Amino acid sequence: MRSQLIDHPYPPTKIMWVPDYNGVMPDLFATSGEYLRLWEINSATGGVALRAELTNSKESQYAAPLTSFDWNMDDPSTMGTCSIDTTCTLWDLSKQTIKTQLIAHEKEVYDFAFAPGVFTFATAGADGSIRQFDVRDLAHSNILYDNQNQVPFVRLVWNRTDPKLIATIMMDSNKVTILDIRFPSIAFQELSGHNAFVNSVSWAPTSQYLLMRSLATTFLLRETTPKCSSGTLAGLSTKPLLSTTYSNPYLLTMQEKR
Asked: Beta 78-83 vs 66-71: how paired, if at all?
């Protein structure tokens, strides 16, 4: 296994590989910081080259830092980014241009995630809300959950096998809040079990498993219970299927320039 350090002028806030189910696209990955950057790995030499550097501001020298982004799994030419300036931006990567930009929250936007398909995405904000948008009508949004204490939401992940469910993380919390988009303003369930703050959560791509990770590098694995006859979900298992501690779990890592 080869490794290579990449000079990133601003500390990266997220790294993501291109969604390529058929294995026909170049080896691309993206990073967010003060700009959105696209990188390509040369399969022959293993070298990494900067392919594009994109900014959502006309004054590129003073671009507001990007907090996160998501690559559309069903349309890899589309990417969405969010920023501390309260905006979200949809990008056409094939043209390296902005499709549209909108004010998404009253405060900083900390995360952005596409639902399965090409029309819907959700955002997490410092105003304590999770909001849902449809690209066909960006003038309106649906507030899925509004934290009465205005504790910021910092992460959200859409369940691709059951798009009704979204997993979210609040700032400085040891819990994961599950939302059912059919019932706005109601937390479907809160999952605990970590002693330290949760900083990452991920649904399995083809099953109902949910993986939670804390600052103590402790992992908890949970599973959604089968659907009831009424068509509603009974909830998530109260006890994790797996609990383990593991150091250095990443193949692609972010390292702040020293």
From this structure: antiparallel
